[in-house]
Amino acid sequence: MATVPLLKCKPPKRQKKQKAYLLTFVSNVADATVSILSTLVPTATSLSSNPNPSTYGQSVAFVATVESSAPGGPTGTVTFKNGSNTLGSATLSGTTAVLNTANLPAGTASVVATYKGDGRSQSSSSDPVLQGVNKAVTTTTVVSSRNPSKVGQVVKFTATVSSPTVIPTGAVTFLDGVTTLSTVKLARGKASYSTSALSAGEHDITAVYGGDSNIEGSKSSVLVQSVN
């Protein structure tokens, strides 16, 4: 009897079938993603501010309005940015979101509002709003603890720097005419300097606040200190 040789069978190439299945799965996911995105309603976001211009330290209201034809209207949050610096976020109430902030430096801020979107509405960003911010104005006054005084007596001069929108920081320089007596750091808008070295006669005392990048400087009127 003749012997029939056994045929060698190659194992099925499962890897190729898996790849085909994976490609089909990825294709289906991509199609589903496109389908989901196509159901989102486009939105339009606009932005306004009040007051504009403002003053450093003054609160500014940024109002974002989001238009969407989605059922129930847009929901979610709006983020407000000055350049790359995030000012804050606010939740939509109806079609508007309001952010109040006093943290804008003096100069010109370029503020954009971005709506993040929701399950029915696409995201969108407003055009930039150029917000002008003026330096805070200040007034400086100076008083004496005793006037007139006597030679050798201690006299305390106190300067007060005030502003309608901010508590000034920095330093005050006390002058006797054109002679610098001392430079003192402000604490809650006040600075004091004491001396017993005033000579007999009249001394024209002034206090000068230098200001900074956000706050205008100012100078007090002359206080005539009489020393007997």
Task: List the defining traits of the structure above.
mainly beta; 228 residues; 1 helix
What is the strand and helix layout of this fold?
Elements: H1 14-38, E1 43-50, E2 54-55, E3 60-68, E4 77-82, E5 85-91, E6 96-101, E7 107-115, E8 124-125, E9 129-134, E10 139-144, E11 155-162, E12 171-176, E13 179-185, E14 190-195, E15 201-209, E16 218-219, E17 223-227
Parallel strand pairs: 2-9
Antiparallel strand pairs: 1-3, 3-6, 4-5, 4-7, 7-8, 7-9, 10-11, 11-14, 12-13, 12-15, 15-16, 15-17
Classify the secondary structure makeup into a structural class: mainly beta
Q: Which topology of the largest domain does CATH recognise?
A: Immunoglobulin-like
Instruction: State which percent range the strand residues make up.
Output: over 45%
- Rg to the nearest angstrom? 36 Å
Unreliable stretches: 12-37
Under CATH, the homologous superfamily of the largest domain reads Immunoglobulins
Q: What is the level-2 CATH architecture name of the largest domain?
A: Sandwich
Would you report the number of β strands? 17
Helicity level, as a percent range? 10-25%
Count, helices: 1
Number of domains: 2
Distance between the termini: 147 Å
